[in-house]
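Task card 7
Instruction: Convert sequence to C-alpha cells.
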Amino acid sequence: MSVLPRERRLVEAITDVAGTTGPGLDVSELLYSLAANSVDLLDTDTASVHIADDSGALGTIATCGEDSRYIELFAGRVDDGPSAESYRTNAIVFSVDLDLDRCRWRAFTAKARHLGFRSAYGIPLCSDDHVVGGLTLLRTQAGPLGEADVAVAQCLATVAALSLVHHRAQRSHAAVQDQLEGALESRIIIEQAKGYLARDYHETPKQAFRRLRDYARRRGLPLHTVAEDVVTRRLDLD
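Output:
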C-alpha cells in the first residue's frame, strides 16, 4: 500500500524530531526542529516552544515562522497565553478568535492581536504525565485547526517531550539546568543568525533556520556553534 504525501511528511517529521536525540542531545536543535516541523505540517503561521525551569517558569527556547513578528511576542518569560495554560493544566487549549477572546490571556492576546495573529493553540509537552513545557501555535486567520492538525501537533510535542525526559533521566539535575540555561541563551544567537541568513539569502526566517540546521547536521556541529560563526561572520553557508 502506498503512503500518502501527508502521512509520509508526518513520518519524516517524527523521524526528524526524534533524530536529534542521543547522548549528545542538542536541546536547542530538538526544540527548533519541533517548531519548524509544526509550521511545515500544520495550518499555522508560527510555532514557539517553551520549557519550564525548576520553579515552573516557562522560557522560550525555539520559535519558527514565515516572518519575525513572533520575536516581540516571545521576548521574555512566558507566564501568560496558551502555552502557559496548557503547561499548567496538561491539556490542549485554544482560542479560535482572539478578537472575541480579548479577556483571555490579556497580555498575550493584546500583543498577538497587535502583531496580526487571530487564533492560537497551546499544546502541552508531556511524557507519561510529566509536563515539561508547551507548544504555542499561532495563526493569522480566525477559526479552528482541523482535528488532524491538532492530533499531529500533539504527536510531535509528545515525541519531543519523550526525548527530553529520557535525556534528562540520564543526566544530573545540575547538568539539566545548565543545559536549559544554555538553550535559553542560544536562542538569542540562533535568532540573530536566522536574521542574518534571511537577509543575505533573501529568504524567510523558516527557510533560514533550515539552512542553518542542515549545515550543522551535515558537519556534526551543535546548532548554536554554527549560529555563532554566522553572526560573527566566521562562516559563510554557501
